[in-house]
Design goal:
There is one protein chain. By secondary structure, the protein is mainly alpha-helical. The chain has one domain. The protein has 2 helices and no strands. The two termini are 13 Å apart. The model has no long low-confidence stretch (mean pLDDT 74).
């Protein structure tokens, strides 16, 4: 489920903004959980 993430270009905000990074990780976990539920 993380294969499509490789195409994403991670912005520099992830390195400077930990909160944004954690929010992104949480969103990804939710998406993966939904995929597994299917």
């Amino acid at each position: 489920g993380f294969a499509h993430l490789r195409n994403w270009r991670v912005p520099g905000k992830v390195r400077t903004t930990p909160r944004w990074a954690t929010a992104l990780v949480r969103a990804l976990l939710v998406l993966t959980n939904q995929e597994v539920a299917r």
